[in-house]
UniProtKB/TrEMBL annotation:
Localization per Swiss-Prot or TrEMBL: Cytoplasm; Nucleus
Top-level lineage group: Eukaryota
Gene source species: Chordeiles acutipennis (Lesser nighthawk)
Record's GO cellular component terms: cytoplasm; nucleus
Domain annotation RWD: ranges: 1-86
Keyword flag Nucleus: yes
PROSITE patterns registered for this protein in UniProt: RWD
Sorted UniProt keywords: Cytoplasm, Nucleus
Protein name (record): RWD domain-containing protein 3
Gene: Rwdd3
Classification via CDD domains: RWD_RWDD3, RWDD3_C
Major localisation: cytoplasm
GO biological process: positive regulation of hypoxia-inducible factor-1alpha signaling pathway; positive regulation of protein sumoylation
């Protein structure tokens, strides 16, 4: 394996006021783990994005202390014991930032990702998997088919976009020519950029079958991404 392994862990932690916080942790262990730090993503319906980011940062700080030794179990124990302090600290910092700059937009962390897939052999299963990942990671956008062209256009929090990419590259999402489950190796990241103010943003994630190039372009126009379409899609037709 050249990508390492990825796995999810869900833990329930007693936080402030004795309420339970469900933490969804995703660890990607590279092949040379534990000599190399794992990639960590944190999600929770009970915490804000900023708090999830702070939890991730604190976990990475702890991970550095355990470099070159197995650490996942220790990291989970640590966050179970320290979550309430991390959240308290995060809330204080957040309040200070709000006081300093109420005009700051959360759009700073919202990104657009455009992917090109070479093929889908197990199309129904593949589509279902992409829809589930988009839903779990609160990403909006389109999975678009036109002839042999397959595009995935996603918008959402940058950390969730990165987590999606990890899943896309490390999970067995398709089958090979012999029908055996396999990872996606024929994928290209065409563009990864911050959402600009003129972009309208997608409200949902949808699968679209387009019969013409005009239909495909209209999907990009929905979110004010005509320039993105013009730059990256026509070259795929050559």
């Amino acid at each position: 394996e050249t990508h390492g392994i990825t796995f999810r862990i869900q833990i329930s932690v007693k936080e402030l006021l004795d309420t339970d916080v469900l933490l969804k942790l995703l660890f990607h262990l590279p092949v040379n783990y534990p000599s190399t730090l794992p990639d960590i993503s944190v999600n929770s319906d009970q915490l804000t994005r900023a708090q999830c980011t702070d939890v991730k940062d604190k976990l990475l700080e702890q991970a550095k202390k355990h470099l070159s030794e197995p650490m996942i179990h220790d990291l989970i124990l640590w966050i179970q014991q320290h979550l309430k302090y991390v959240v308290k600290q995060s809330a204080t910092v957040c309040n200070e930032k709000t006081t300093l700059s109420k005009g700051t937009s959360t759009e700073d962390s919202t990104w657009t990702l455009l992917l090109h897939l070479d093929h889908m052999r197990a199309k129904a299963k593949y589509v279902k998997t992409v829809e589930k990942w988009a839903s779990d990671l609160r990403l909006t956008g389109r999975l678009m088919f036109m002839g042999k062209i397959i595009l995935i256009l996603l918008q959402g929090d940058r950390s969730n976009i990165k987590e999606y990419l990890i899943l896309q590259k490390t999970s067995k999402v398709d089958v090979d020519s012999s029908g055996k489950k396999c990872k996606e190796k024929m994928i290209s990241v065409l563009c990864e950029t911050k959402v600009q103010s003129q972009h309208k943003r997608f409200q949902t994630f949808e699968v679209k079958e387009c019969s013409t190039l005009d239909e495909l372009q209209k999907e990009f126009e929905t979110a004010g991404l005509t320039t993105l379409f013009s730059e990256f899609v026509p070259p795929l037709l050559k």
